Amino acid sequence: MKEDLMEIICCPLDKHDLDLEVTERDDGEILSGELVCTECSETFPIEDGIPNLLPPDMRDEAPA
Amino acid sequence: MGEEPSDAADAGGDGDRPSLADQRGVESVYQPAEDSDLLARTARERVGAGDTVLDVGTGSGYVAARLAEAGARAVGVDVSPLACREAAGNGVPVVRGDLVEPFRADAFDLVAFNPPYLPTPPEKEWDDWMEHALSGGEDGRRLVDPFLETVERVLAPGGEALVLVSSLTDPDAVRAYASDHGLASERVASEKHPYEVLVVLRFSAE
């Protein structure tokens, strides 16, 4: 993801702002890291450049 | 029993359409078809350069990519990790998420949604990502209803949502449901196909 995506995303649970913690960055693209809600502290992973903002109870729900 | 073209057979209760299994083929991410194309064309006429737009259930990223070509800042969201990967591979900024939940209030000038809309009896559901991409549940509105309940929050003032529905999904029922949730609606495009009429409905705050 690009950093400017932060302007339009929020915590899916309480709609508060997210803090971006970058683990790996490549040429302006954030490849891995975490998004942390500034209100409820829920943590959302960024994997392979894609932020996973599913609520935790849907995160592991994977059709076979 | 007379001979009928096989594609008109209706033994399985799916209506006059090929079964979901036939449609899904071997793919696990929904690939753009007539419905995506009608939604993309309709949305493209309505977006301006610099508009921020969201493509809900982006799948391969097709609608978002078409809107980006028109100069919009287009973002996709999908619940499927496979779809997210494919959309990202097609150059679409994408978020894995549930409908409009992970987006800020007033963020979008236009939200486009091509939902899974095929009415599907429970015993015919497939528990995989392609089933999720095609099946609208028993009434075809499994994801349309929650979308209509939540989309207004993310629309900028004057913003609009465009939803592709089928005659199989009862567009009038969809509009009545939207009205109950404070959304005005109008029909902005339609196209006749062999098994259904595809309709694009526009929703905005009342």
Low-confidence stretches of chain B: 1-15
Order of helices and strands of chain A: EEEEH
Helix amount of chain B: 25-40%
Strand content of chain B: 25-35%
What value does the average pLDDT of chain A take? 93
InterPro entries (chain A): Trm112-like
Pfam family, one (chain A): Trm112p
Organism (chain A): Haloarcula vallismortis ATCC 29715
Protein name (chain A): Trm112p-like protein
Question: Which helices and strands appear, and what pairs or packs with what?
Answer:
The complex is a heterodimer of chains A (64) and B (206).
Chain A: E1 18-26, E2 29-37, E3 43-47, E4 50-51, H1 56-59
Antiparallel strand pairs in A: 1-2, 2-3, 3-4
Chain B: H1 20-24, H2 34-46, E1 52-56, H3 62-69, E2 73-78, H4 81-89, E3 94-96, E4 108-113, H5 129-134, H6 144-150, E5 155-166, H7 171-180, E6 183-193, E7 196-205
Parallel strand pairs in B: 1-2, 1-4, 2-3, 4-5
Antiparallel strand pairs in B: 5-7, 6-7
Helix pairs in contact in B: 2-3
